[in-house]
Amino acid sequence: MANMIFLVFRAFFITMMTVGMMATLTEFRFGRRKLLLILAVYGLWVIGSSMVLLWLGGELLLLRLFYLTISIPATVLTYWAANDTPVQAVFNHMTQILLSVLVVSIIRLLTDYLDLAGFVNVLLMGAFYLTIIYLERRFLRQPFRVLIQIIPTRWGVLTLIPCVFCAYFIFVASWPGSYLQNDSQIVYVYAAVIPLIIVYIAVFKSLYDLYRIQVEQHSAALLAVQITALKEKLQKVKEVEEGIRIQRHDLRHQLQTVTELVAQGDRDAALKFLDAAQTRLDEHTVTRWCRPPVLDAVFSSYFDQAKNNGIPVEARISLSDTLSVDEGELAIVLANALENAIHANLELPRDQRKILCKIVGSPSVMLEISNPCTDNISFDSNGLPVAQREGHGLGVQSISAFCRKNRAICQFDLADGWFRFRLIL
Q: Per DSSP, what are the bridge partners of residue 76?
């Protein structure tokens, strides 16, 4: 009886710690209370199902069937409570289960070989789980969450890797008997560890390369936007200079005409002529939003895009000649934010479209870009908007990387139908 209680506790402990590993890389959509309630109900199921399997067939039956009675329900429940797609959830959760199964089996083999007490086995497992949960949360969570946002699809085939290896390890470890009592089974079980490691290294390298390519393509596209914006700005300046040159050439004739009208006493005609000349002169003026040329070009380009799409822009910009950060990097942040604001506006009726842009350079650079939007925006645990479609989200990740590099503070929020992005350097 005492051994059965220990085995049930061990199964419960392993399960809860594995769920903790699964949670470290998961973004949940439920609140803490609901998650704890789900965990409590699942915990009762683990205890009950483990007791039944141990009573019916001992530890060997539990080893053979825990994948069906414990692991799969954990994956289903975690997916139900998470924001991830089914294939992303299966890859993440089954990988965690696979790692847990491997390490727990090694610890069990070690403690049985050294004839150590059961509580030592639990202590070693606890040390492993706490260490891996800390390492995953500290170093792996953010890159993994970024990866599945940038690459929300193409995970289908990858889910086969942990599922197949899990099934292999469980089958070989429990048929025809327990691996603890058969040396050849031990060899077959752990012979698959090396190819497993190689496969996972290849998978993550491939995913990282794909992510890097997408980021580089996005950066190249933004650089092209900056170059285009500068060319457009230079073209406008040339057009204005040409217009002013023509006006300067015509000025002598205009003054002569006005002098003649005044001499004839026709003041109204003289004033109308001057007003018309002023209007023509105003048509050749160019708006300069700020002194830094790259930022000025970006503002001009995106504000013109907004205007062409029927989006009114209200801008208050006050920047000095010199900035505390690289002008090109800040221009990319502005380009990303304004592009997102334009795309959000295009989903709204014309009478609801608007962009508000405020930026000051003293005492530090402070930026706020606001736009009305739909209410179907969700945020992750870091407060960043979650991409809704494949290929989206690179702009937000670029802004986040800029903030980390320059120790800036950025904030995204949605209130009263308005989406706001704020940045403080």
A: none
φ/ψ of residue 321, rounded to 5: -65, -35
Question: Are the C-beta atoms of 76 and 89 separated by less than 8 Å?
Answer: no
Strands 409-415 and 313-318: unpaired
Provide CB contacts within 8 A for 314, sequence distance 6+.
354, 355, 356, 357
In the block, residue with structure tokens 């069937």: 65
| The two structure tokens encoding residue 232 | 């457009």
Name the 3-class secondary structure at 318.
strand
Residue 413: its H or E element: strand 409-415
From the list 75, 95, 74, the residue with the least C-alpha distance to 12 is: 74
Domains of the chain and any CATH numbers:
2-191 (no CATH), 289-425 (3.30.565.10)
pLDDT in tens, 194-219: 999 999 999 888 888 877 787 777 67
Token digits for 226?
A: 């900056």
pTM: 0.70
- Judged against a pLDDT cut of 90, whether residue 95 lies above it is answered with yes
Distance, in Å, from the CA atom of 360 to the CA atom of 318, rounded to the nearest integer, reads: 5
Q: Does position 390 have pLDDT exceeding 60, yes or no?
A: no
Integer angstrom CA distances of residue 148 from 131, 394, 420 = 24, 12, 24
Q: Please name which of 310, 320, 314, 415 lies closest in space to residue 357, comparing C-alpha atoms.
A: 314
Helices (H) and strands (E) in the chain, counts: 13, 5
Q: How far apart are CA 418 and CA 420, in angstroms?
A: 6
Of 325, 339, 332, which Cα lies nearest the Cα of 219? 332
